[in-house]
Amino acid sequence: MKEIVIRESYVGLLYEDGAYVKTLKPGKHKFPRKIFDKVSRTVGMVDVRERSLTIKGQEILTSDKVAIRVSLLVYYRITDPVAATHNVSSFEDRIYEDVQLAARRFLASRTLDLILTDRNEISEAVKTDVTESAAGYGVEVIRADVKDLVFPGNLREIMNMVIETERKAEAKIIEARNEAEALRIQNEARNAAEIDKINAEKEMIRVSADAELEKFRSELEMKTKEAEALKAHPELLKILQLQMLKEFAGNGARLVLGLDGETVKTATEL
What we know:
By secondary structure, this protein is an alpha+beta fold.
């Protein structure tokens, strides 16, 4: 009895006399030995975990004739161990070649400005380009990221100057925005203070007007009550007249009473 153990994250390809028979899952597998069994059995291990492969700097000419070097980091895993083993001599070499050619095709169709604008576009384009071909030899390309993007020496200097200029311009824009925001806040505070002042003055005028109106109402109510009292009690009018005569006499004025006892004139009126 022969035992073979397949570790987790691997699968085994069973061959008998060099011919593929089946795929063995992780675990222990037993193969009984017969007296006259002369079959030669071998098991090839295939790692099905996610792995990465670095596509080192490839010099590529962009559509506007600028030479750049790009390095990519490809993440992949084997989805069909049989195809990965039987359809190509080395699936890693094939992935390397496919990604390299895909990157060349894409970058050669783009200007330097477009490449610098969105590096993620390179990753998506390469992944899309190689997905179908990689599936043909049992490999799934999970993603392809730009690891390095290198430019000629003089171009690097120019780019550094451009980047520095952009940083300074951005800093000035931020400073201008901050100043504008501070000015806006100051204006809002000033306007709020003016509005509060106007509202306070309006409130004072309203309170004063309410007080005057209340005073007028009180006086009017008192006069109305006096008039109603005099109308209801005519004798009160005589009393008021006597009080007035008393006040005049106290001031040294001479009074002349009419024969009817009703008419009263001061000396100045005579």
